[in-house]
Amino acid sequence: MKTGALIECDAFIPMYTFNARKKECEGYIYGGCGGSKNLFPSRQECEQGCKHLLDREKRSEASCEQPPETGRCLAAFSRFAYDPEKGDCVEFLYGGCGGNENNFRTRGECLKKCNVAQFKYLNLNDVPTNDKIVVEAN
């Protein structure tokens, strides 16, 4: 780009963008310049394009909120389950069959899966460039 060149971003294009904090697609007025992959011409296309994010998040949250289950078999495998009250992964004995999805071989695997469900990360590359970013701390 030449020094002193101006980029006109005065368009008024109705688009939709996925709001990670609200977990929904919402209307957005796009100025016509810059932007990201998080711009969709319709709510339906936005929801379809971001469905995998919503589905993955719902599965993670649901599995991490389940209580640890030993299962119906009688083995004694050391496993880890996320405890929402403690906000941490705790060790428990798994019988080897049955149980639920809140069952991880290592504490690291448990933390990786369940912290994603507890602390939402915002990918700044997916935010329209002419939008304000608000970060809220819990």
UniProtKB/TrEMBL annotation:
GO terms for cellular component: extracellular space. One of its GO terms (molecular function) is serine-type endopeptidase inhibitor activity. Residues 1-50, 64-114 form the BPTI/Kunitz inhibitor domain. CDD domains: Kunitz-type. It is found in: Secreted. The keyword Disulfide bond applies. Keywords: Blood coagulation cascade inhibiting toxin, Disulfide bond, Hemostasis impairing toxin, Protease inhibitor, Secreted, Serine protease inhibitor, Toxin. It holds the Pfam family Kunitz_BPTI. It comes from the Eukaryota. This is BPTI/Kunitz inhibitor domain-containing protein.
